[in-house]
Amino acid sequence: MGGVPDLDITFDERPMSTEKTACILCSRNCGLSVTIENGKFTRIRGDDEHPVSKGYICQKAARLEHYQNHEDRLKHPLRRQADGSFARVGWDEALDDIARRLRAIRDRHGGRAFAFYGGGGQGNHLGGMYGQQLHKAMRSRFVYSSLAQEKTGDFWVNGRLFGHQTCHVTEDVEHADYVLFIGANPYQAHGIPNARDTLRALQRNPARTMVVVDPRRSETAKFADIHLQIKPGADAFLMLALLGIIVREDLHDREFLARRCKGFAGLEKELLAVPVADFVQRTELALADVERVARGFATARAACVRIDLGIQQTLHTTLNSYLEKLLYLVTGNFGKRGGNNLHTFLLPLIGHSDERNPQYPRTAHHQMFPIAGLYPPNILPDEIEHDGEDRLRAMVVDSSNPVLSAADTQAYERAFSQLDLLVVVDVAMTETARLAHYVLPAASQFEKWEATGFNLEFPENAFHLRHALFAPLGESLPEAEIYTRLLEKMGEIPPRFPLLEWIARLEPRFAGHTVFLGALAATLACKPRWRPHAASILYRTLGKTLPSGAAIAAPLLGLTTLYAGRHAAAVERAGHRGNRLTLGASLFHAILERRSGTLMSINTFDDTWSLIRHPDGRVDLAIPEMLEQLRELRSETVPGAGYPFILMAGERRSYNANQIYRDPAWRKVDREGALRLHPADARALGLADGARARCRSATGELEVTVELDDNLRRGTATLPHGYGQRYRDSEPVGPQINRLTAGAHCDPFTRTPFHKYVPVHIEPVAA
Ligand SMILES: Nc1nc2c(c(=O)[nH]1)N[C@H]1C(S)=C(S)[C@@H](COP(=O)(O)OP(=O)(O)OC[C@H]3O[C@@H](n4cnc5c(=O)[nH]c(N)nc54)[C@H](O)[C@@H]3O)O[C@H]1N2
Ligand SMILES: Nc1nc2c(c(=O)[nH]1)N[C@H]1C(S)=C(S)[C@@H](COP(=O)(O)OP(=O)(O)OC[C@H]3O[C@@H](n4cnc5c(=O)[nH]c(N)nc54)[C@H](O)[C@@H]3O)O[C@H]1N2
Ligand code: SF4
Ligand SMILES: [Mo]
């Protein structure tokens, strides 16, 4: 056994062992069974015992050693010097100075001067819970997140349809007879259970139909019965045409609409008025194909829709979210097996913030409101550069690399250099960290207990708490420890809670932690100032009684208690036992003990109606803002005039995984992150396969390597997401695609970027 004295954690240091963990590269978080030898992963396989992934993995997981061990890992806290270089500093010195400067900024300028960015990537959402306490300590509501550059249109529409922005919809692709993929490429990007197996099963069964709407013959489209190779950005027209055909041909589910929904009468009028032939023409698809899909989808026994960035990061983002939901709602494919469904959440990944409620502050420059509690990265540089007392002055960025991943890298570099204080918490030296005043090293996701909040299944939902496999590298610390120390140094919470610690130690486990939870509730009632910091308090008290290293997971007791209170019957169906007071604790201990993850709830499809948050339990179909946008579509002209190509900036491929891998050696193919172009377009430009080309947008330009690909539509080009890191101070490896994108090129309502619709010029680079 080895140990981490500072944290009182012990480690299994046998030269070789086999352990359970999960992949941290995408929202599926597949269970893994890994072999570890001398501090390295030597074998990575799917974990057959994982309740959701059941042994499934994709090729990316096998390379996780490149995340865990590489040259850009951070080992010590660093402070930027006057000359721009970084010097090592001690934790106490760094956190004392950060605490002092944050307090000074808060006292002088108020909470508006501070924003938190990130707080959890694809698999580290426990750390995020601790980080989220900081903006509360700063009396700020400004939380920026990558989710607010893709999913806030979806969350906003959910808020209106279902009564709360946390009502999130999933899709039962595995049991549907008819599946409509719109702007999603699950073969590469996953996002649905065991994607490649699920696609194969769909393809093999002649009784099931799979339709893919994508301008590119994507890897997923190759499995489809019908591929609608739509013109980029035209999905709103297509979805309206589908809906128009469905209501005209009386294929909608009148019984479902009458019983479960309200507002259909007004919507029906709009849908009947859709000029179907005209709209289909704008998509550049054949009317007969669109009619066939409308009829097939509406008459299937069970049909569902799966969407992703292809409609969320392009023209009409928010309207698209409304329309794709109408497809399953109008046909009654909601709240049933093989349809689309709401699901439960254990970790609160998002919140609810209705923009009509003045309680949620607007930003100084753009007067932007939060959606699901989150502000959009597209406006952030302007908020920092805002000319006024109320500008943003200090930020903490955690688990995100916005300099490369948010729109307009140049604007981010400029704005971040103007902050009074920028602190980055990361496992690696990122492009964002290079601009920080302080860089704080986090223990990696295999060096601490962690979990994902992407528990998006229905009716069975599972949770996987991973234990630490390695000791933290160098002086790195888990976020729980970093933020708790910072809150202590800021004077937000005391270093000890003697009464709570005493109760936590005394209370036998079979009491279901009821005395402890009661004492915690009483403490927080007496000390409202501590309330936002319940995570750190649980960590410092109950945490001390949990197995080595598991203290980080202590806040889960509060969450499982709330969860079991709300979904008691579903939790019991999953095999957890206890009464009204103790069921949550029993779920908590199952989560702590089961290394492969545990089922936490089994709902019935009928529970859907209690997950809806409108008091009457019905879906409210009439969203006035959306009906207005829908009417405006008719007079819309296509943007991008003067630019010959539409670039899809951010394609998911075999060897990209957001900003998570930095060492380019992880890639087996596509090392340069090629610009893909249709062979006929390339020929017309005089570009051969492998040639160098310049890709120029209104914002910036990049030099790229060309790859010919006849799966593309003419007039479109693609560049991959997740490249451009500077590994060991190298030049960027592959394209930094957000040098081409612009903050203002976005959905005017949610401010989500149109990354899939970037007008560009492409030209050969003179030799
Ligand atoms: N390999 C890999 N997988 C990943 C990630 C990764 O970096 N690499 N990242 C993860 C993350 S964070 C996310 S959010 C998901 C995203 O997952 P996806 O959204 O599925 O992936 P993308 O490749 O960004 O886009 C999906 C498809 O949209 C198509 N598309 C582009 N423009 C349009 C359009 O106008 N209309 C329609 N209908 N389609 C269009 C593209 O051709 C593409 O095939 O992937 C996750 N999985
Ligand atoms: N043009 C364009 N831009 C895009 C996209 C696109 O399609 N086109 N896609 C967008 C999408 S959908 C997304 S989700 C974003 C993703 O981009 P980001 O928000 O930047 O998110 P990640 O890539 O998940 O960030 C991972 C960061 O967390 C760090 N990290 C890993 N483990 C830990 C840990 O345990 N603790 C801490 N503190 N840090 C850790 C990694 O080193 C890395 O710096 O990119 C977006 N950007
Ligand atoms: S990248 Fe996603 S689908 Fe692939 S193994 Fe990891 S979690 Fe599973
Ligand atoms: Mo994403």
Radius of gyration: 26 Å
Give the % helix.
25-40%
Largest beta sheet: what is the strand line-up?
A: 7-6-19-18-17-8-9
The number of helical runs is 26
Say which molecules are bound, naming each kind only once: ligand MGD, iron/sulfur cluster, molybdenum atom
Report the end-to-end length measured between terminal Cα atoms: 60 Å
Shape summary: globular
Oligomer: single chain
Number of strands: 30
- What percentage of amino acids are in beta strands? 15-25%
Unreliable segments of 5+ consecutive residues: none
Overall pLDDT level: 96
Class by alpha and beta content:
alpha/beta
Major sheet description: 7 strands, mixed
Q: How would you explain this protein's 3D organization?
A:
The protein is 31% helix and 17% strand. The strands form 9 sheets. A 7-stranded mixed β-sheet has the order 7-6-19-18-17-8-9, covered by helices on one side. It is globular. The longest helix has 19 residues, at 91-109. A hairpin with a 4-residue loop joins strand 27 and strand 28 (701-708). By secondary structure, the chain is of the alpha/beta class. The termini are far apart. The protein binds ligand MGD (2 copies), iron/sulfur cluster and molybdenum atom. One ligand MGD is lined by residues 26, 150, 182-185, 188-191, 213-216, 218, 230, 232-233, 235, 308-311, 314, 648, 650-653, 656-658, 721-722, 756.
Task: Please tag this protein with its features.
single chain, 767 residues, alpha/beta, 26 helices, 30 strands, 31% helix, globular, binds ligand MGD, binds iron/sulfur cluster, binds molybdenum atom
